[in-house]
Amino acid sequence: MPTVIAALVDLGRPGHYVHWGFIDISVANLVVIGLMLLVFILAIAIPFPHGGKK
Amino acid sequence: MSTFSDTPMEPGGQAGYGLETRPTWTGWLRRRAVATLPPEKLLPDRQPSYVASWIYVFGALTLAAFGVVLASGAVLAIKGPDWWHVSSAGLFVNSVHLWGTELFFFFMVIHLWGKFFMAAWRGRRRATWITGVLAFVISIATAFTGYLSQQNFDSEWIGTQAKDGINATGAGAFWNVLNFGQMLLWHVLLLPLVVAVMVAVHVLLVRRRGVVPPFPAKGADK
């Protein structure tokens, strides 16, 4: 299992960064922001189970 | 006013137990607390129908993550850095503390977005919004002091990089990021205490004012 994780993300190397004008952000942080946006949209879009009855 | 019993007072000012009564600050405090937060509001068994949406879940998720962070942090404080850096159990609890914090901020930011787009300060809920903002900002400072308290090269690097920024604000004179003892105490005592108080007030205000309703849809039947 650790081998699989290590194959996905090599934590032994310097992180990757995205440079866009004055914006300078690590890929890791960018991924987290993307996931937050995704979960936010899903939380609005997916119906809540047994909702809307009371 | 009686402070000894909940039984109704008799005309002569005597409570049910025949004790002499007089105004006390504890009695005043109890009456104010019960009037402000009656039990049915403090621990409700029903919520409005609009709460049945996933976007309303993230406040409670943030609270759950906060509990994990506090519990794992307490274990780390008891055992110390030679345990959390070396032993397998220590590394595990250290990781739980880190990932609990990641989830805490993850859920809190989604909670913030949801409440921002609902304009959750409507309906006399300004204090709820402000306490949430304060909890968020102080949590960032708590996380920062946590990075400084790791006792490894990472914390040394962050401390030496941050000191110039902190000094530039003038705060470095009394808030020294290179002082491990100071940063550790801020991290494990002062800041968590303030965050916990802010969160407690925030939750009590949500109980008092209720969960903010969504904006009415166009053409909705009430």
List the keywords:
heterodimer; A: 54 residues; alpha+beta; two-stranded antiparallel sheet; flat; B: 222 residues; mainly alpha; Cytochrome Bc1 Complex, Chain C; 2 domains; 8 helices; 64% helix; globular
What does this structure look like?
The complex is a heterodimer of chains A (54) and B (222). With 54 residues, chain A is of the alpha+beta class. Chain A has one domain. Chain A contains 2 helices and 2 strands; from the N terminus they run H-E-E-H. A two-stranded antiparallel ribbon of chain A has the order 1-2. The longest helix of chain A is centred in the middle third of the chain and has 19 residues, at 27-45. Chain A is flat and about 45 Å long. The termini of chain A are far apart. Chain B is an all-alpha fold. Chain B folds into 2 domains: 1-37, no CATH class; 53-209, Cytochrome Bc1 Complex, Chain C (Up-down Bundle). Chain B has 8 helices and no strands. In chain B, helix 3 (58-79) packs antiparallel against helix 5 (88-117) and helix 6 packs antiparallel against helix 8. The longest helix of chain B is centred in the middle third of the chain and has 30 residues, at 88-117. The two termini of chain B are 45 Å apart. The relative contact order of chain B is 0.10. The mean pLDDT of chain B is 89.
Question: What is the fold's blueprint, element by element?
Answer:
The complex is a heterodimer of chains A (54) and B (222).
Chain A: H1 2-8, E1 17-20, E2 23-26, H2 27-45
Antiparallel strand pairs in A: 1-2
Chain B: H1 25-36, H2 39-42, H3 58-79, H4 81-84, H5 88-117, H6 126-148, H7 153-169, H8 180-209
Helix pairs in contact in B: 3-5, 6-8
- Strand sequence of the main sheet of chain A, in spatial order? 1-2
CATH architecture of the largest domain in chain B: Up-down Bundle
Task: Count the domains of chain B.
Answer: 2
Structural class of chain B: mainly alpha
- State the oligomer: heterodimer
